[in-house]
Design brief:
The strands form 4 sheets. A 6-stranded mixed β-sheet has the order 10-6-1-2-3-16, sandwiched between helices. The protein has a 5-stranded mixed β-sheet with strand order 13-12-11-14-15. The chain contains 10 helices and 16 strands. The protein is of the alpha/beta class. The longest helix is centred in the last third of the chain and has 27 residues.
Length: 345
């Protein structure tokens, strides 16, 4: 099965395999832009147009697989960790989970899709287990399911986008000194409309906050300054071809503004938690590769900043476009994590 990431600006596909040594192989990678307004705040507004975009994406990738792992926006999912007695049968645990879920979900259970997984022994008692509950309104789940089916796909897993990005980043943090043990990692996912900050330590999420700034603000500036439609401006921003004054007049001021927003987000984390530093800042998402951004973040914050390529240390199959991989790899973080679900349950 492959990972299918649907965002407000694009749909992305990643298919992974494994070699005989158990290492990941990037077998398929594809990207299809969406027009502004087709998806808003995770809601599919132009169903037929998005279905057609997914069909084109699958065809472009060349995959023969039709089984898809998809993601739900974090804002559309309610999650809660609970403690239950160890040793319960699955049917007994389901009854307990439903009883607990009633306390935390502000909807009737008839209106939601509910699932859970056992995380492991409770830190407080060996007689208990820690369980993660996840719930989302059925209409939001059915939107994703219907979209996949209309595009000729079989949706087999519906994950949470933030969990997928954490799964993908776990490969990267394992390469830090001491395999990332006790390292405080600030991950910024710079999307089209929003930027999410996740602070992780030992694969645990310590802090999660979204802010309303993203790459579409630069696209709007390009559109206004050079008389382009939004979609033309987005394409030229990614592929090049803008006038020479773009760098000094628009790009450099925007990079500085974006770096300052990242610095402010970190300061908000420090003032609202006991922490006062991070070990590194990781940048992902479509705007992570803007020239000079990583260096400017390091300069402003004092913390080492790096752009994340989720496919680092993976073999690359012959069907993968090297130009797409080089330009867009950091924007495939969620799609990579979704694709990893083929091997990580």
């Amino acid at each position: 099965m492959f990972g299918l990431d649907i965002s407000s600006s694009s749909v992305k596909l990643v298919e992974l395999g494994q070699n005989s040594a158990g290492q990941y192989v990037l077998e398929r990678l594809a990207y299809q832009p969406l027009e502004k307004g087709w998806i808003t705040d995770g809601q599919i507004e132009r169903f037929d147009e998005v279905v057609e975009a997914v069909r084109r994406l699958v065809a472009r990738s060349g995959t023969n697989t039709r089984r898809a792992v998809m993601g739900m926006p974090q804002a559309a999912v309610i999650t809660k960790k609970i403690i239950l007695p160890a040793g319960l049968r699955e049917d007994e645990m389901e009854v307990q989970v439903e009883a607990e879920a009633n306390q935390y979900i502000p909807f009737s259970l008839d209106e939601v899709s509910l699932d859970f997984c056992i995380l492991g022994p409770s830190p407080a008692s060996m007689d208990d287990v820690e369980v993660l509950i996840a719930a989302s309104r059925k209409d939001r789940v059915q939107d994703r399911q219907s979209l996949a089916e209309a595009a000729g796909l079989e949706p087999v897993v519906l994950d949470i986008e933030s969990h997928a990005s954490r799964l993908a980043i776990s490969r990267w943090t394992a390469c830090l000194p001491r395999q990332g043990k006790d390292a405080l990692v600030a991950l910024f996912e710079i999307g089209a409309e929003n930027t999410g900050l996740k602070v992780l330590c030992n694969d645990e999420l310590l802090y999660d906050r979204d802010q309303a700034f993203g790459g579409s603000q630069l696209t709007l500036l390009i559109s206004r300054n050079f008389g382009l439609t939004f979609d033309e401006a987005e394409r030229k921003k990614i592929e090049g071809g803008l006038p020479q004054e773009y760098m000094a007049d628009l790009l450099e001021p925007f990079v500085d503004s974006l770096a300052q927003e990242i610095g402010r987000a970190l300061q908000y984390f420090f003032t609202s938690t006991p922490h006062h530093k991070v070990d590194c800042v990781l940048l992902a998402g479509g705007s992570a590769t803007l020239p000079g951004l990583s260096a400017r973040v390091t300069e402003l914050t004092g913390f080492e900043s790096m752009v994340v390529n989720p496919f680092d240390l993976m073999q690359t199959g012959s069907a993968v476009s090297s130009s797409t991989l080089e330009r867009l790899a950091p924007s495939f973080l969620i799609a990579c994590g979704l694709a990893m679900r083929r091997f990580v349950q």
